[in-house]
Design a protein that fits this description.
The protein is α+β, with helices and mostly antiparallel strands. Helices cover 27% and strands 26% of the residues. It has helices at 13-22, 45-65, 119-129; strands spanning 9-12, 31-35, 40-43, 72-79, 84-91, 133-136, 147-153. β4 and β5 form a beta hairpin. α2 (45-65) packs antiparallel against α3 (119-129). The chain starts with 8 loop residues before the first strand and ends with a strand.
């Protein structure tokens, strides 16, 4: 059900992601943003903010649950070959086992005590409604934990 409403505007995702991180003071010591140049994609700013917030919160909780000082790197890149923008969220938590990489996006599936299993389901719904895709990436990610990749049309 791909739709583009008037809320889906072409944005440079780099300053948008930097702003989302900057507006969360509790993330400052844990979250870094990397990008090479500007990266445009069509998105609803408020919904995109929710996607990034859910992914970063999951990453921080996963690392803390594994007894680690959280590290999260958000990388924003253009994928001209696919006419898409990609946002990669890497963490230093325990990672997502290969067998669970599809299931983590299903509603009510959680691997965290007290988790609702809705965070990634919401991320997936928002991204698909944008005509994009989200996946749990190949292991091992650069920080040794999970990698989530959000792709949006540009």
């Amino acid at each position: 059900s791909q739709y583009l409403s008037e809320q889906h505007v072409l944005f440079d995702l780099v300053p948008l992601v930097e702003e989302i991180v900057r507006l969360q003071p509790e993330w400052q010591s844990f979250v870094k943003v990397q990008a090479g140049g500007s990266v445009s994609a069509r998105c609803d700013k408020m919904l995109f903010r929710r996607v990034i917030a859910n992914l970063v919160e999951n990453a921080l909780q996963a690392a803390r649950a594994a007894g680690r000082e959280p590290q999260v790197v958000i990388r924003v890149e253009q994928r001209p070959d696919r006419e898409r923008a990609a946002v990669l969220v890497d963490d230093n938590g325990p990672g997502v086992p290969e067998a669970d990489r599809q299931r983590v996006f299903d509603p009510y599936v959680t691997f965290r005590p007290g988790g609702t299993g809705l965070g990634l389901a919401i991320v997936r719904k928002i991204v698909i409604d944008h005509g994009g895709d989200v996946s749990a990436g190949e292991a091992p990610a650069p920080l040794g934990g999970a990698r989530f990749v959000v792709e949006l049309p540009c």
